[in-house]
Every structure is written in C-alpha cells, then in structure tokens.
Amino acid sequence: MTTTSATSSTSATSSWQSIGLYVQIAGAGAFVAGIVLSLHHYAIGVCFIAGAAAFYIGKKLKAT
Fold first, then answer.
1. How far is residue 7's CA from residue 39's CA, in Å, rounded to a whole number?
2. Could you give the CA distance from residue 25 to residue 47 in angstroms, rounded to a whole number?
3. Domain range for 54
4. DSSP at 37
C-alpha cells in the first residue's frame, strides 16, 4: 500500500518536472523572440516579458 503511494508521488513529481522543462523551453524561445524583434511594439514587448516569466515558472516547476 505504501509502495503504490510512493510510486504515485514519484510519477506526479516527474510529470511536474516534464511540464516545467517544456514551459522553461517555451519561455526561453519567447524571450529570444522578444530580443530578436526588439521592444518597438507592445505585442513584442509582451512576448519578451511573458517569455522571461515562463522561463522562471518552468524553472520553479522543474525544481519541485
């Protein structure tokens, strides 16, 4: 019974780490796109800031 709950907990943790990795990669891509396109337009600025935030969130999710 404890083995099942430990396996379930490990599975959930690795799932969050996978999600964190994908969010971090997407954030890095959006951040780079924002740098390449510059901050001349509001939409590009939002992409830049959202990319940085997603990278940070992904990093935190991977750590859990």
1. 46
2. 14
3. 2-63
4. H
Per the structure, how many domains does the chain have? 1
Distance between CA atoms of residues 36 and 41, nearest Å: 12
3-state SS assignment for residue 7 = helix
**pTM score, two decimals?**
0.50
pLDDT digits (tens, 9 = 90+) for 8-17: 556 667 888 8
58/50 Cα distance (integer angstroms): 12
Q: What span, in angstroms and rounded, lies between the C-alpha atoms of 61 and 44?
A: 25
Instruction: Give percent helix, percent strand, percent coil of the chain, each to the nearest 5.
Output: 90, 0, 10
Sequence letter at residue 35: I
